[in-house]
Amino acid sequence: MSKTHHLIRRALPAAALALLAAVGPAAMAQPAAPAAAPAAPTAAGPALNIRQIHERLEAAGYREIREIELSGNRYEVKARNAQGERVKLEMNATTGAVERSRTRH
C-alpha cells in the first residue's frame, strides 16, 4: 500500500468523526422523515391544469375553446359562449372561477 493511500484511509474516518461531532447526537437520533405528501397548491402556481380548465369551460357551455394561457394566477381563454359570441375570459387558476368575460368583435 502506498504512503498516500495509507494517509487517505486514516484521514477519512477522522473526517467522518469530526462531521458527526459537529452535527451532534440529537440529529443522529432522529428517525428518518416519512415520504413527502403531494404538495398543496401554492399562491405562486395554479391548482388547476389546462385540461381541467377546458373541461370546466365545456361543462359551462363554452365552445370552440382556442387558447388557454396561464398569466400569473389567472388563465386567459379565447372561446365562444353559449350564445355563439366570441369571448375572452380571465379565470382564477386556483378555483377555476370566471373572473372576467369580455365579448370580442
Task: Explain what this protein looks like in three dimensions.
It contains 3 helices and 4 strands. By secondary structure, it is of the alpha+beta class. The model is unreliable at 4-9, 26-31 and 36-42 (pLDDT under 50). Strand 1 and strand 2 (74-80) form a beta hairpin. The radius of gyration is 28 Å and the shape is globular. It has helices spanning 3-23, 25-29, 50-59, and strands spanning 63-71, 74-80, 86-92, 98-103. 34% of the residues lie in helices and 28% in strands. Strands 1-2-3-4 form a 4-stranded antiparallel sheet, with helices on one face.
The end-to-end distance, rounded to whole angstroms, is 84 Å
Number of strands: 4
Class based on secondary structure composition and strand pairing: alpha+beta
Low-confidence stretches: 4-9, 26-31, 36-42
Rg over alpha carbons: 28 Å
Strand order of the largest sheet: 1-2-3-4
Give the biggest beta sheet: 4 strands, antiparallel
The backbone outline, from C-alpha atoms, is globular
Task: Name the beta content range.
Answer: 25-35%
The number of helical runs is: 3
Question: H/E order of the elements?
Answer: HHHEEEE
Helix content: 25-40%
The overall pLDDT average reads 75
Key features of this structure:
4-stranded antiparallel sheet; alpha+beta; 105 residues
Concise description?
By secondary structure, this protein is an alpha+beta fold. The protein is 34% helix and 28% strand.
